[in-house]
Predict the structure.
Amino acid sequence: MTQPDYHDIPDYHDIPGTTVFDGGQTRRGYHLNQFCMSLMDPAARTRFLADERGYLDTWPLTEAQKLAVLARDYNAMIAEGGNIYFLGKIGATDGKSFVQLTAGMSGMTPEAYTAMMVAGGRPWHGLPALTPHEKGAS
């Protein structure tokens, strides 16, 4: 039995407000996510915080991945293959809660983000699409 090629599904990568974490993203972010997991070790956290760029340079990350980590740009890290559950290790290293991370990614305060989630989450209507299809173009 062959696996379907989800890249052939129209709009697979055009879900408003969503980066699909699929096999391609998994491969793209493998080393980024492994770096994140390394931060579970207290000694690694100490090395990273003492010289972030130097520690990142010990990993086979792309320059874009390194710059995203250094800027703590979680949306860019996700675009570069990061999985939010792994990326949370960076936030924890910085003393940030998961709510603080996701609120920042959404451009909201933690309080506003929490209230939105308690009320049922963010509506997808009005989020930007990546292709003209979502805008009604054919």
Remarks:
- The CA atoms of residues 112 and 118 lie 10 Å apart.
- The first helix runs from residue 23 to 28.
